[in-house]
Amino acid sequence: MAEEYPEFSLRLPNGGPLARGRQTDEKGTNGSRKFVVGAGQPVRKDVSPSFPTRVASANRLRKRLISSGAITPSATWPGWLETAEPITFNSPSEAAAVLTGNSVNGWDVWKAEDGRPLKEFVSGASRSPSRAWLVRGSNVTGLDLARRMWLPEGRVSLAVPLLRQGITQGMSPEQVRAFVEEDYESSSYGQRQQLAEEVHAFVSRMKEGDTVCTLSDGHLHVGQITGEVEQVESEDRRSNLRRPVAWQDVSHPYDELPEELKQKLSTQHDVVELTSVQAVIDGLGLTNEELVDEAEAIERDPSVELPAITARRELELPEPTDTLTSELLVHDTDWLREVRDLLWDERQLVLYGPPGTGKTYLALKLAEFLGGGPEQVKLVQFHPSYAYEDFVEGIRPKEDPKTHEVAFRLTEGPLRDLAGHASREGNRHIPHFLIIDEINRANLAKVFGELYFLLEYRDRGVQLPYSGDDFALPPNLFVIGTMNTADRSIALVDAAMRRRFAFVELSPRTEPTSGLLRRWLASQGKNAEPADLLDALNSRIDDADFRIGPSYLMKKGVYRDGGLERTWRTKILPLLEEHHYGEGVDIEKRYGLAALRRSLPEPTA
Fold first, then answer.
1. What's the CATH code of the domain at 486?
2. What angle (nearest 5°) sits at the alpha carbon of residue 232, between those of residues 230 and 238?
3. According to a count of CB atoms within 10 Å of the terminal CB, is the N or C end of the chain lower?
4. Rounded CA gap, 120 and 124, in Å?
5. Of the ranges 133-147, 261-275, 570-584, which one carries the lowest mean pLDDT score?
6. Closest CA to 117 of 146, 96, 98
7. Is the pLDDT score of 221 beyond 50?
8. Whole-angstrom distance, CA of residue 537 vs CA of residue 6
């Protein structure tokens, strides 16, 4: 009852006066708790630009109250309006919207004298922020409940036709699971487990003031939970668990939604938590200016950027500079720009070529530049025994640091670890890079698994087989692979991988690799003879996949006494011996330093 609640106050926008009101236990037709604002309470004179379209129903109510004289110009607060009589609103958010001329969460902005928000009193909630949820209603036993019932009647529901009566707000996971296990015993274990999680989320984790979304007719509809759960006997038991919702009057075309929100909405469950993209939802359909205007209705630290504005900060890959070109000794900045553009368009790229062409070095340096530092770059190296469990997630033996006992535990691989870091709030506009060295040395279909799908469809998610978690690749995660064509020809790479990656060649026959050693020698003030010898060597190798890259000769040890001969004998000639194994080729006579030096033109005076 009303006397159980203290008086709540609301600071009007732009440092305005305090309005006061009381929560009641009286419920409206859809189950929302009503809220009463007494006479003589201040009301904002104007409204935010987005108010008439974003919450059209509250805007219409406000106009009716002003027209009827229930809200009049204020003599107490010049330039403001005030209530001329007590007004009962359908929910705290409706009351706050009418008074502030803004779309606000009444359960957060109405506060008791001790600073606690209203939601802590009506739901027994903690100080944790409000959550966001997706509840599916566009195909419930063949009907679009969202269009038929939820939107017109102001509610959301969950179809659990076999669940007994007695479901109440705040039930524990164990209580819900016991009911589901008994009432749905004919269903599979996985179905019972999923249903129990969804029912518990709907009944106990959802609170008044939480955001709720649903999809219908290709549009996303957004609303706010305005009351506790109710269990009723509904037609065909398609909506026997219900909650009241204040739906916004505008919807958002699915095709125009941000990619990270689409990923979450693609999860195939009836109830999905969307709190990680709450800020994205809050900003839908609003400009930055409108977001700031709405935020003025809430007491907050003005020095902190609004989460909705932070969430929409654009992901960018910086343009390569001439300085980077000089550092990497690349022949042309335009070539680096093309690689950057390929990464931007495809999100996945493979640098391929013979050994020693600088593939890994270039991948790391380019990723560090584009990502803003080494903290955003993770490197893994594939090998023949590398598996999905190493890369994504798997059950691995782990030692307990306290007991030192070893047990098998679910362990994240480097991909999930980096994806989690890239998905954190405040990181989503920062590029993150996963470098996969020697990508073609592993069984790619075995290592990538369902990730092959995610690499192509970045706006979708999948359920991982070990953890059962819903997983998607964040838009700001880029993958750069390196492929040694001497180990396995690029022609042997399967079509699935070819379709998902852009391929960039690093070969001694083309730039930026063909002139790399010459540019490096010039930068070090060294004689160009090693570059001439390398060019002569590669001209004698018919198979382009086995030509020798310049990095073998870009080390300090090569230029100590006898270093060039030693490197040629121990690094380069063994590669060629393996290439010509069984062919009877005299490696020294064909590729030795003495033979190559004799082939070089005499230096001019």
1. 3.40.50.300
2. 105
3. C
4. 5
5. 133-147
6. 96
7. yes
8. 87
Burial of 143: CB neighbours in 10 Å, binned 0-12, 13-18, 19+: middle
Cα Dmax for the chain: 106
Helix crossing, 333-346 with 359-371: angle to 10°? 70
Report how far apart, in Å, the C-alpha atoms of 331 and of each of 324, 594, 596 are. Answer: 11, 30, 26
Which residue reads 């607060």 in tokens?
77
Domain with 555, as residue range(s), is 516-599
Amino acid at 177: R
Residue range 530-578, pLDDT digits in tens: 999 999 999 999 888 889 999 999 999 999 999 999 999 999 999 999 8
For 213, counting Cβ atoms within 10 Å of its Cβ (0-12 exposed, 13-18 middle, 19+ buried), the class is: buried
pLDDT in tens, 43-62: 999 998 888 988 889 999 99
Gap between the Cα atoms of 98 and 66, Å rounded: 10
Angstrom CA distances, 301 to 296, 426, 574, stand at: 10, 17, 67
| Average pLDDT score over the chain | 89
Residues 452 and 443: their CA atoms lie apart, in Å, by 13
| pTM exceeding the 0.90 threshold for the entire prediction | no
Number of domains in the chain: 4
Between CA 137 and CA 571 the distance in angstroms is: 65
Summarize pLDDT for 453-510 with one digit per residue, the tens. 999 998 888 989 999 888 999 999 999 999 988 775 555 567 778 889 999 999 999 9
Copy the structure tokens of residue 182.
């008994």
If asked whether residues 146 and 275 sit together in one domain, one would say yes
Please tell me whether residues 118 and 138 are part of one structural domain. no
